[in-house]
Structures are given as C-alpha cells and as structure tokens.
UniProtKB/TrEMBL annotation, chains A, B:
<feature type="transmembrane region" description="Helical">
    <location>
        <begin position="314"/>
        <end position="340"/>
    </location>
</feature>
<dbReference type="InterPro" id="IPR038076">
    <property type="entry name" value="MgtE_N_sf"/>
</dbReference>
<dbReference type="InterPro" id="IPR000644">
    <property type="entry name" value="CBS_dom"/>
</dbReference>
<keyword id="KW-1003">Cell membrane</keyword>
<feature type="transmembrane region" description="Helical">
    <location>
        <begin position="388"/>
        <end position="408"/>
    </location>
</feature>
<keyword id="KW-0129">CBS domain</keyword>
<dbReference type="InterPro" id="IPR006668">
    <property type="entry name" value="Mg_transptr_MgtE_intracell_dom"/>
</dbReference>
<feature type="domain" description="CBS">
    <location>
        <begin position="204"/>
        <end position="260"/>
    </location>
</feature>
<dbReference type="Pfam" id="PF01769">
    <property type="entry name" value="MgtE"/>
</dbReference>
<comment type="subunit">
    <text>Homodimer.</text>
</comment>
<dbReference type="InterPro" id="IPR036739">
    <property type="entry name" value="SLC41_membr_dom_sf"/>
</dbReference>
<dbReference type="InterPro" id="IPR006667">
    <property type="entry name" value="SLC41_membr_dom"/>
</dbReference>
<keyword id="KW-0812">Transmembrane</keyword>
<feature type="transmembrane region" description="Helical">
    <location>
        <begin position="420"/>
        <end position="440"/>
    </location>
</feature>
<feature type="transmembrane region" description="Helical">
    <location>
        <begin position="289"/>
        <end position="308"/>
    </location>
</feature>
<protein>
    <recommendedName>
        <fullName>Magnesium transporter MgtE</fullName>
    </recommendedName>
</protein>
<dbReference type="InterPro" id="IPR046342">
    <property type="entry name" value="CBS_dom_sf"/>
</dbReference>
Amino acid sequence: MTSSIFHSLLEPDIVQMIQGNDELGLREFCTALYPGVVAEILEDMEPEEAWKVLKHAPASTQGEIFPFFDISFQVKLVELVGDKPLSRIIEEMSGDDRVDLLERMDPDHVETVLRLVAQAERSDIRKLLSYPEYSAGSIMTTEYASLPADISVKEALERLRVQAPSRETIYYIYITDEGRHLLGFLSLRKLILAKPTTRLEEIMQRDVICVRVDDDQEHVANEIARYDFIAIPVVDNQNRLVGIVTHDDAADVMQEEATEDAHLLGAVQPLEDGYVATPFFELAWKRGVWLVILLFAASMTAKVLQYFDPGDGGTWMVLFLPMVLASGGNAGSQSATLVIRALALHETDGRVSWIAWREIRIGALLGAILALISFIVAYLMIGIQASMVVTLTVFLVVTVGTLSGAMLPLGLKRLGMDPAFMSNPLIAALSDMLGVVIYYSTASATVQLFTTA
Amino acid sequence: MTSSIFHSLLEPDIVQMIQGNDELGLREFCTALYPGVVAEILEDMEPEEAWKVLKHAPASTQGEIFPFFDISFQVKLVELVGDKPLSRIIEEMSGDDRVDLLERMDPDHVETVLRLVAQAERSDIRKLLSYPEYSAGSIMTTEYASLPADISVKEALERLRVQAPSRETIYYIYITDEGRHLLGFLSLRKLILAKPTTRLEEIMQRDVICVRVDDDQEHVANEIARYDFIAIPVVDNQNRLVGIVTHDDAADVMQEEATEDAHLLGAVQPLEDGYVATPFFELAWKRGVWLVILLFAASMTAKVLQYFDPGDGGTWMVLFLPMVLASGGNAGSQSATLVIRALALHETDGRVSWIAWREIRIGALLGAILALISFIVAYLMIGIQASMVVTLTVFLVVTVGTLSGAMLPLGLKRLGMDPAFMSNPLIAALSDMLGVVIYYSTASATVQLFTTA
C-alpha cells in the first residue's frame, strides 16, 4: 500500500472517533499503524486535535510517534501535554530524538520536565545536551549494541536478544573491552552466518572506521554516505565508544546542509525550521539583513557611476538604475530560492494562496525598509525630488519582485515543469525588465505631479 | 581509526608494492581493508595505477570495491580491464550498482561484455536496464531477502543464512506468496526476538509501505527518509515484489537532486558528473546555453529602456548598462554555484589553481560567444562604434566575473568561513561595481582611439 492511500481512508474515521470520544478506537489507530504513518496523518491536524488522538496511546507508542513529527510541531505539542505524561514520552523516545526536542523547548520547561524523568535517562540526556550544536555528539544516540570480544557467537546472539528492545539498531555490533574502548566491529549478518562456537574476536573487523565526538556533523554524514553504513561509531579522545550516529540522522543532516547552502546562495540567512514553519518576522529579518547589505553594495555602484557620469539634468536616473534593478532581482531571488527548496522538501503542498499572501506582506515590509534607506542614500546624492522617484521605485520593485519570485516557481510546478528552472539569474532578468518600466513610469508620473503642483 | 589516517599510512607502501610487483601484498591490501577505504585510496591514483593494484584481488573483492568509485572513475577503469575479467566483476557487483555502471558505458562495449556474463545475471541486468532513468526500477536491486508466510521463525533463520551472502540486506525481510505478491514485512530484529516456533504470518507487519516500480526516484528517496527505513520494497502494478531500494541509494538520490536544484538555481544545466569530473566543453555548453538565454532577456531590457529613454548622444550607454552588468553577474553566479556545491561534496580538495585556470579559459570562451551576440544586438540598435564598446565590455566582464565567482568562495573557505556566504546576489553586486568601471573605461578608451584615428 503506498502511503498516501492511508490519508484519504483514515481521516474521516479519526474525526468521527474524536467526536465520539472513542478511546479504544483512537488507541487502536495509534498502535496498529507504522509510527511514521500515524505521525504524518496527525501532523495534518491542529496540534490540539492531534493530542486528542495521541493521548490515548501508551507512552511507548507516543515515544515512537513523536520523533516523526516535524520539530516545530513537536514543540507546539509539548505545550499541550502535561508535565508528567511528557516526562514519560521523553523517557520512551530514543536518545538523539529527545535531545533534538529538548534543545528546542523553553529551558524552564525543560528543567521542570527533567525533574520528573527517571534518574538514568536524565543523566544520559544531560550528557548529550552538553555536546556543542552541530557536533557528532549532538546527533548521536547512546543506545548502541555492544559485546565483549571473548564470547562465542551463540552467547553473543543470546545477549543481543536481551539488548535488542532498547537499542537504536542491533544490525551493527561494536566490540569493546571493560573500559569501553572500541576494539572491533561485527555486522549481525556476519554474526548469524558464523559458527555458534566461534569467538567474536576471531571474526570481528578491527580498524573500525569511526568519528570523534567533537567532529562536525557534516563530516559524520559524509562518512556514513561514503561507506554506505547503517551507523557509525562515535568515540571520545581516549577511543572510548560513547555513541553511534545512524543513517537516518545522517540523511537529515545532509538535507539540512543542502538547505542551508541553498538559502545562503539565494542570500537568505539559513532558516532553522522550514519555509512554511518559520514565523513572519523571523523570515522577514533573515531576508532583510541580506537585502540591506546588498543595497549598500549597490549604492557603491551608484557612487562609481557618479564618478564616471556626473549625471546632471535628466541622467541622474542612470546612477540609480543598477541599484533599483538589483533590489528587485535580489528580493525575487530570495523568494524563488525559498519556494524551490520548500517544494523539493514537500513543505508547501497546496498552500499557493497562503504563500502569495505572505509574500506580498513580506515584500511590502522589506520594500518599505529598503525604500527608506534608498531615500537617504539618494537624497544625499541627487536631492529631494529625484530621490523620491528612486524611493517609490524601490518599494514597488521589491514588493513585485518578492511576489513574483515566489509565484513563478509555483506556476512552473503547476505546469508540470521543474520549478528550479526559475533560476536566480532568470528571476533577476525578468525583474530587470519590469524594474525599468516601473522606474521610468514613476519618474514621468512624478515629473507631471511636480509640474502640475 | 578515523579514515584519513589510512591514506598517509598506506600510500607509500602501495607505490612500493606496485614497483616491486608484489602480487601477494597488493592482494592483501585489497582484501584486508573495508572496500570503501580501498576505493578511496585507489581513486587518488591514475586509473592505470589503480588497476595495477586492483587486478590482483579476487573478482568478488573487485565487485565490492568497484561501486565505491565515483561513476566517472569506474567508466575510465573498465576501459583498462579485459572483457573477461570485467564480466566477472560485473557478475559479482550488486544489482543496482552494475546497472549504474552499464548505463554509463559505451553500448557496444556493454553488449560485448554482457555476452560473457552468466545467463541468470544477464537477464537480471537486461530487466533492470529496461526501467526508465530516474524511476524506482532504475535504482533498485533485485537481491532482497524474502520468505513465505507459513514457516516458523526457526526455519526462517535457517533459510536466511542461506540467502544472506547474496542479498543486499537481510535486515528487512519481505513475506511473499508463490506468485511473489507482497504480503508482509519483518525486521530481522523482530525475527530474532520472536519465539522459534512462531509462524511468520503471526508476527509479520501487513500493510507494508512500498513504492511502485515506475515511481520517480525522488519520491522513493523521500519515502525512505520520511520513515527512517533501511530499505523500501518496490512492487509492480500487480503488487508483485520486484526489488528493493536501500537507504544508501536513497541518500545518493537526495544528494543528486539537491545538486541538480542548486545548479538550476544558479542557471547551469545540471551536470551528470561532478564539477571537477565534467569535461571542459560539456561544462562550457551547460553554462553557455543559459547565459545566451539570459543575454536575450537582458537585450529585451535594452529595448524597453530605448522606449523610455531614446538614448541619443552620450546616453546610448544607458541602454546596455543592465545587459552588461547582468552578463557579468550571471557568469559569476554560475561559477560560484558550481564551486560552492563542489566544495560541499568534497570534490575540489586542493585544486585551487587547477580550478582558476579552467575558469579563466571557460570565462574567455563564454565571454567571446556572448560578446559576439551582444555585438549583433547592439549594432542593430546603436551602430558600429558604440556597439564595439558593449562587445568588448561583455567579453571582459564575463571573463572576470567567471573567474571571481569561482575564486571568491574558495577564498572564503581558505579563511575558514562558509563559502556559501558568497551568494549569487552578492557576486552580482560585486560584479556590477566592476562592470561599471570596465564599461566606462572601455568607452572612454574607445572614444580616444576613434578621436586619435
């Protein structure tokens, strides 16, 4: 069954069960399906509704479902869950997943909840929380399978059965001494193929490829991808095994890094959450910073032009032509970059008018800020009347550029084409054409206005 | 041991072993280390040298090492390997990896080699080759572990031991009927935790999440990432299991798609190989196509400007100002995009001067082509003398823009900063400033030239 079928089949049933307060039915829904599928269906609801479903599940199931929610959805949910049930969920979540969540929660709330968490789990959490962000330590889990070197294959399999329920993976087994030093590695495949009487040290692979706990997370993801590993061991500087990073976390890191690079390339400060989940003013800030820097760079170009072409009489318009055009192109590149990356990550499904409305407002806000700065720059160079033309044009060009940068990729997608064809330079080229029309129309309108007055 | 240590330790030894023709030593080197590590060391050599090492390994080891090479390195290697040994390597490679290689080889060579491949493998290869590019079928492998529903856990483990050596993974087991219809799913973890007498149908998970053989590879990768799977089953339209896609192939697809989007966003036709591996003229073509399209778009802006500002006397320069500046910015955005993505994928390590020299030549070639087109466009609008200024400026701006777009990110990297800070709009802004200087200097130089003559 392909996963999208679940949605249409199940959503009406669940709404009915919530209305009828059918506790057994809701519990059955949470436990019978794969946790990732449950999360996907619940994430389409409001957090309040989702919790009405999830609260009927046992804590162990809640702990399995939680990590499949987007992190911003998890943060919203924990506000609705009481401290006691939340501490149970956190106990049940796997090591790396709960640290991801706790790092994003309000610190006071974290302290309150942690006090209710069992001692063993709590010290594990505090330790993982202490590793710096973006390090191997911050994405690893301590729930790895490990065995001593001097036992037989038969005994190893028996011990693995005991470890299995609480380990993130038992397919990679790490061989350690009493001091937890990493001695070797065995795959479960090799283990079940070996003779029961063989000792692990005879078949284990020595010289294990590992990473250090303070290595950058990008390095860890690259090592896993390069060697096609399911997990990679993490050691401290005494070569003691402290955790593992699994392939799924490595894939998440790769996606994050690709998103961060894409955003930076489009001159947006990287967003922590997705494009849709980022709040309005945070999004405006992360774009505005770069637009202002770029506006100052463009005003340098105006200065350079003034040196070559003093721009008296009608030709003052030339000085600010590159700045005006660049403002529209830059704003458009930002929107296009954000929307194209969000489309690739399937964040935007069916939200076209929501995006358009948000982009118009962000465009107007950013346009107003840039217009104000442009006014000051232009006033100092070319006087009041001319600078008003520049100011008004920058406002219009940025607003229109922002909106069309978001809408053109969505339009291409609707036509069945690759939205990424709407490249930054192409957006800039279209914006240039429009910018010229707006600039010269504004100028002649203003001239008429001043002449009439 | 972190992987980079292998290099410095082993490379001198290997060179010595090649010189001394130490067959046993080279064979030992190939078989003792993890195949991914062997591949990494060999890939730093010329293909001829690498084959001198690898030819001493048994075919099964060769088949394990081969897939870890970059695909363009694999293609170079197969030219050096005789048809008979190559057919053995292909027999030993896993299903999806060999198809990746065969799809990139010369079709005549493929036919010659396939005739030497064992019948069973050959028909498997032909079948996988028949799936369209970018489909689930094109990235799946047929080497999955499957079992019937009505056997006991004990018997299942025994059968798995038989299947294990030839399967891509045995950690996910698919339950099928005699017609290969997918009935359920079991993880090896669940299997070894179950009581030996339990029948599989009692513990298997029904409603398996799967993809169709003609689904897009991006969809497949997203499903694996969404549910944190190690593998996902692929079924045909009769729900018959035809293959699996594993997590490592999904990660590759995600990287490919991110690279493709990044290239498109920077207005480069996506490269099949990496930036470094792509030949000069192919790279020039994939950039030139977009630069020419963007030049025509910019010449429209010149037309629009001419409508508002007829540009007689000195002001003809204004008409082509946006086009001249955009050409430099676009060329620079392309280089920056390519270099930043290549840095993220660790393709460019230590090749700064090689990159600089290639970018100068590509910049000059693309500059010459764009200059020629600009000349025609400008000649039709503003006459011979003025158009020569435009032509010369476009050539210089594109050459300098291309080079600096590549060098600025490498410089940031050298300073320990994130190279992606050199965003497309920032490159365009810097290029604008430089473009103005070049444009006006060229103009005044040309005027002097014509005045003197």
